[in-house]
Amino acid sequence: MKQPEPRGPVSSLLLETLSGPEQRTSGSRELIAAVDEAVAATPDLAFDEDLQLTLFCLFELHYGGIDGVDDSWEWHPDLISERRRLEQAYESQLRSAVSLPALPAPTSAGVAAGLFQLTGDDGGPSMSRYVAKTASEEQVREFLIQKSIYTLKEADPHTWAIPRLTGRAKAAMVEIQADEYGGGVPERMHSALFAQSMRGAGLDDGYGNYLDAVPAITLASSNLMSMFGLNRRLRGAIVGHLASYEMTSSQANRLYARGFRRLGYDDATAAYFDEHVEADAVHEQIAGRDLAGGLVEAEPALLEDVFFGAAAAMTVDTWMTEHILGAWTAGSSSLRTSSTVSA
Amino acid sequence: MDRRQLVVAYVVDGVRMSATQRDAYDDDGSPDSGASPSRPLSGPRQTIVAFPDGPLLVRGDFDIVDPDGKPLRRSRKTVALCRCGASVLKPYCDGSHKLIGFKTEPES
Predict the structure, then answer these.
(1) Shortest Cα distance from B96 to chain A (angstroms)?
(2) Cβ-count burial A81-100 (b if 16+ within 10 Å, e if not)
(3) How far is B90 from chain A (nearest CA, A)?
(4) What are chain A's domains?
């Protein structure tokens, strides 16, 4: 991923630190002090440009890396310490903001039914209905740009969970992820189908190439899954997060496909959305019963975190949708730099 | 007949071997009585999972064909087959059962 532009003192210091060789002394301790100060001062971490970009870059060291940054920075203790501070603050914000439903019995059937009910009750604004009926060409391009931050690495954050699961839950996760990764056919990988949609809409399909254009809340949505995926402690939450994504996907993607065709885009551009209608109708069943239900039957203490992960996914993505639709309704762009779209 | 020959025989026959199927052989490598290369062995091969209020999930080695035996479009190993009748992707599920409030009979 190319180096992003910093958005404040903390991301600026981080990117400056990362541009040098890894070192155990100097520089990085300053980072920790800067993070502590910024975390204490921020009114809303989920919408904090500087801190969400910082967290995104720290996570990126564990994915594809950042151009010009030495790979050996990945496990630098001061960076891990910085990441943990941001994660703790973000998790704590979400634990207070997210309301959990009444928890079901810790059985596969109970967990599946509870998750279907939670995800079916979503009363938030609907991006998919807007795209289906109303969005302009410019707006669907923005929609793709917003989505690209996660979707060009679709499935990767949940894959971190595989070695932390066992038995039925693990087999279910692998079955879902194998399908996400195209069942052995690289062109069928969901991230590759999404790249095809971006090209079809005349956009740059390189991972992270629109990072500078997207707002903090879009990074917060991606950071949520990276945080859940990279912390074994939160394996219940990443499983709930995936279940919630699968359970809210089929119908939404049918509407997205309709919107793209309404605007005259071809089948190749809509293929990503078509694929998800069918794929996620399979995945949601496996995710509810075998993945989430199987995990809770094996580890009943994770019941609450499974529901926390699912509810947190819906909360953060509702914030993101409100931001985007709010901007569009006001006649403006949902991006930080709208020039990127027409470039 | 040793185990290796049996594996080859069954792969040629288009039947995927699983650990459970291998267990269907006696320790001396001969098949349990009744098993023969022309008949798939016992054990989990294809399963159809009937999800309450949802689709039929089919997992394993199988073909989905039209009445003339012609394969239908299929893009994944495990498929969900529509049971509520409302899918626009039939025979596959598209999640429509949730929108129409489809209910299956209570499972015993």
Answers:
(1) 7
(2) ebbebbbebbbeebeeebee
(3) 10
(4) 9-97 (no CATH), 108-342 (1.20.910.10)
